[in-house]
Write a structure and sequence with these properties.
Strand content: 25-35%
CATH architecture of the largest domain: Single Sheet
Distance between the termini: 15 Å
Number of domains: 2
Structural class: mainly beta
Oligomer: single chain
Order of helices and strands: EEEEE
Number of strands: 5
């Protein structure tokens, strides 16, 4: 699971959404309901659950030690 940042292309609203399983194609803007969104990458890491059921978090930027949310 990951907490991702989005911005709506229709109304400009910025918001966060908790995503399970990397499936964010059903996310809708909480302001106008549009699904025309862009993902905002702010260089922060998110809570990730690895295949071994361990939890990793707390990394920052290039010093990430394995969290799956930020892609490091």
């Amino acid at each position: 699971m990951a907490l991702l940042d989005f911005q709506c292309n229709k109304c400009g609203e910025k918001f966060e959404e908790l995503i399970f399983g990397g499936n964010w194609d059903k996310v809708k803007c909480p302001e106008c309901g549009s699904n025309d969104l862009k993902r905002i990458y702010e260089g922060k890491c998110y809570l990730g659950i690895t295949g071994s059921s361990s939890i990793s978090s707390g990394c920052s930027g290039s010093s990430c030690a394995g969290c799956r949310g930020c892609g490091h």
